[in-house]
Write a structure and sequence with these properties.
mainly alpha, 137 residues
Length: 137
């Protein structure tokens, strides 16, 4: 299959859903589940969060999650199924994103807790995205 066929077979509605789901997960992950740990590890404060441009932050985050969802949809293909999507998302999350975060965090000497919160979110997020894309892609 060539790239044109792979992109042409993507279910764009499913891609939109897969890109939106990390917002729900992120609200839980960076809120009640690990919010305090993340704020401490990252040096973020309530004041700094409140001073940011949330429209720009959430808009840009959605565009980037859309890029992730499209790339994952093309990577797993249109006939993957939920389990292949889940495994592909886990491999992408662990093998690419978490590993890349790990390299950067080592050189930046960031705390292990910061890595675990951020990498964990990405692994779970991509696994959920992959499951959705595999099931309905």
């Amino acid at each position: 299959m060539d790239l044109g066929d792979a992109v042409g077979g993507v279910s764009w509605l499913t891609v939109l859903l897969a890109a939106a789901i990390p917002f729900v997960l992120g609200a839980l992950w960076y809120g009640p589940l690990f919010g305090k740990r993340w704020m401490t590890a990252s040096g973020m404060t309530e004041e700094k969060v409140a001073s940011g441009n949330m429209l720009r932050t959430f808009g840009a985050a959605f565009v980037l999650q859309l890029v992730q969802a499209v790339a994952l949809a093309v990577f797993i293909g249109v006939e993957a199924g939920v389990w292949v999507g889940l495994v592909a998302g886990l491999f992408a999350g662990i093998g690419w994103v978490a590993a890349a975060f790990g390299v950067v965090y080592l050189f930046e000497q960031r705390p292990l807790g910061h890595f675990l919160v951020n990498a964990g979110y990405m692994v779970v997020s991509l696994a959920v995205m992959g499951s959705i894309l595999g099931a309905w892609g």
